[in-house]
Amino acid sequence: MKILVTGGAGFIGSAVVRLAVRRGHEVVNLDALTYAANLENVASVSNSPLYAFEQADLRDRTALDRVLDTHKPDAIMHLAAESHVDRSIDGPGDFIETNITGTYNLLEAARAYWVGQGRPEGFRFHHISTDEVFGSLGETGQFTEETPYDPRSPYSASKAASDHLVRAWHETYGLPVVLTNCSNNYGPFHFPEKLVPVVILNALHGRPIPVYGDGGNVRDWLYVEDHADALLLVLEKGELGRSYNIGGENEAKNIDLVRTICAEMDRLRPENAPHDKLITFVTDRPGHDRRYAIDPDRIRTELGWRPSVTVEEGLRQTVEWYLDNADWWQPLLARKGVGERLGKA
Ligand SMILES: NC(=O)c1ccc[n+]([C@@H]2O[C@H](COP(=O)([O-])OP(=O)(O)OC[C@H]3O[C@@H](n4cnc5c(N)ncnc54)[C@H](O)[C@@H]3O)[C@@H](O)[C@H]2O)c1
């Protein structure tokens, strides 16, 4: 297949690009290269004849038309987005423009391209979204694909809007779409403003490890390479118009996740143990969703997919990767907003 991946210089998009090329697909990586992007994430495949890069912005419809006409992909995997909840609290405008208007532009460009190609049956528009669109759970229950949307942050509201647009383009224009909503990802190449890399790097540098509120917020954690594997499976085998929830089968309170990472740091850097002495509780994020949990039944029973690693294994690999790859993360610490407390409203 020739796949156009949007956001392929970001965290999850780059995992998709690397895996797709390894599996012999042709990949066109379309990315605007915002603060969150890093072409080093795809350095391992960038010399492959199967790989091409196009710097283009979802807000620029003409550029999207040009990329589609030039490369003529068989499928689009749409991951490009503004993705950081704290930044969405401080500046929601970028989230509206990229996640909503940008997705609208891509849908319209994809529709024109698909119609122009004679509506090929095998064409797919795969929209990648988040479990945050479902809102916050109490102590029990899980999100299924039928759970009503109830987004609560500017980020999740913008992603919810984009999901609705994608379904509408399927129902109204027949665009062949599939959707996925997945839980919190972690793993190599994760931009150092997100929880897992923040904990690793602050522990490494002996700096306070910030934990929002009481640390009792619960998330499901999915290793990014497992996510990329699930996404390629849904692209190839998912039923048209259907959405699939993807989870790691690893629910954990933030504080427990942080303590697990500290224990890994104790093992790898025993001279500075115990790292959990650095844990510092800070003012909570406004509107902080309490609990997310994924019911993975559909993807498991219909497509036979399950995550390959436990959170303990995935975190071990992730901590080792960060300790071995300072050249990757060091320059990113200088980017705007990194290391600052954002999103206090
Ligand atoms: N990270 C998670 O835990 C998680 C969980 C579920 C779903 N998702 C979804 O997966 C997707 C990828 O997330 P991520 O964590 O890799 O994000 P990321 O922030 O690491 O990467 C986003 C990429 O999109 C690009 N981009 C942003 N605005 C753009 C624009 N206007 N035009 C073109 N490119 C643009 C950026 O340059 C960057 O390379 C997002 O749609 C996100 O909502 C993420």
From TrEMBL:
Claim: Electron transport is one of the keywords in the record: no
Domain NAD(P)-binding: 4-318
CDD domains found in the cross-reference section: dTDP_GD_SDR_e
Record keywords, A-Z: Lyase, NAD
InterPro entries per record: dTDP_Gluc_deHydtase (IPR005888), NAD(P)-bd_dom (IPR016040), NAD(P)-bd_dom_sf (IPR036291)
Pfam families: GDP_Man_Dehyd
Gene3D superfamilies linked to this entry: NAD(P)-binding Rossmann-like Domain, UDP-galactose 4-epimerase, domain 1
Positions in coiled-coil regions: none
Reaction(s) catalysed (UniProt annotation): dTDP-alpha-D-glucose = dTDP-4-dehydro-6-deoxy-alpha-D-glucose + H2O
Any GO BP: nucleotide-sugar metabolic process
Key word Chloroplast present: no
Cofactor: NAD(+)
GO molecular function, one term: dTDP-glucose 4,6-dehydratase activity
E.C. number(s) listed in UniProt: 4.2.1.46
Similarity section: Belongs to the NAD(P)-dependent epimerase/dehydratase family. dTDP-glucose dehydratase subfamily.
UniProt name for this protein: dTDP-glucose 4,6-dehydratase
Organism this protein belongs to: Paracoccus laeviglucosivorans
